[in-house]
Design a protein that fits this description.
CATH superfamily of the largest domain: Alpha/Beta hydrolase fold, catalytic domain
CATH architecture of the largest domain: 3-Layer(aba) Sandwich
Number of helices: 10
InterPro entries: AB_hydrolase_1, AB_hydrolase_fold, Carboxylesterase_BioH
Structural class: alpha/beta
Strand content: 5-15%
Radius of gyration: 17 Å
Organism: Pigmentiphaga kullae
Number of strands: 6
Protein name: Pimeloyl-ACP methyl ester carboxylesterase
CATH class of the largest domain: Alpha Beta
Number of domains: 2
Distance between the termini: 21 Å
Helix content: 40-55%
Strand order of the largest sheet: 2-1-3-4-5-6
CATH topology of the largest domain: Rossmann fold
């Protein structure tokens, strides 16, 4: 399936997500190349997740796309082994560390409160509260929202705790952006309130030659909300000449 002319595509899911978040992308690109979606298990740092990705990648060199927390893992992969990443796509994500002071403590408290809800009421009930900000308001309680809840329900509070730990202790990737040398796509839903477009504009401006794409009529879950538009952006990215 994959070859030197069609190197693998490694697709990194975000917090509590699994291969379902990339279902349409795997359908679109899987006939031409191997598409792998790693599972982080209960790894509890972004560095450990990145090392896991590198250890299990289907080839020495590959294309790498990360959504949400997966985008942070992708940047860590690129920091650890830049020579292995042919192309990089960062989608609905962030790159800064935990904020100092009140803002950081507020994030910590909010995440731990969700974990408490997950333990006491179950993952799906936690998701009903947490995930309402994930999708465009027009899709609340529709099939995409239910699919997001299904993903969350497939995870456990133990996985949630590990991934929260990873995010609360996330590295600040700001210093590595100027050194990213492979073709890079920065993509965001126009209505993403979790990882707003303004942040992606700053991110794209900091990476030499990066391409910024805003996906219309989409919130945070762009790959599921607007798969056609996302797939077209990824197809153009995969046609960019990779670093040799």
């Amino acid at each position: 399936m994959s070859s030197l002319s069609n190197p693998p595509l490694v697709l990194l899911p975000g917090l509590l997500c699994d291969a379902a978040v990339w279902e349409d992308q795997r359908t679109r690109f899987g006939a031409q190349r191997e598409c792998q979606v790693p599972d982080y298990g209960t790894l509890d740092t972004l560095t450990a997740m990145a090392e896991h990705v590198l250890q299990h990648a289907p080839a020495d060199r590959f294309n790498l796309a990360g959504h949400s927390m997966g985008g942070r893992v992708a940047m860590e992969v690129t920091r650890l082994a830049p020579e292995r990443v042919l192309r990089l796509a960062l989608m609905d994500t962030g790159y800064q560390g935990l904020a100092k002071g009140v803002a950081g403590e507020s994030e910590r408290a909010g995440r731990l409160a969700l974990l408490k809800t997950a333990r006491e009421q179950g993952m799906r009930e936690m998701g009903r509260v947490w995930a309402r900000g994930m999708v465009h308001p027009d899709r609340l309680d529709g099939p995409v929202f239910e699919a997001v809840l299904d993903m969350i329900e497939r995870r456990t509070p133990e996985v949630f705790e590990a991934q929260i730990h990873a995010l609360l202790n996330r590295p600040d990737a700001s210093g590595q952006l100027a050194g990213i040398a492979c073709p890079t796509l920065v993509l965001c839903g126009r209505q993403d309130t979790w990882s707003p477009l303004s942040r992606h504009e700053t991110l794209a401006a900091a990476i030499p030659g990066a391409t910024l794409v805003a996906i219309e009529d989409a919130g945070h879950m762009t790959t599921m909300e607007q798969p056609g538009a996302v797939n077209e952006a990824l197809a153009q990215w995969l046609r960019a000449e990779a670093r040799h």
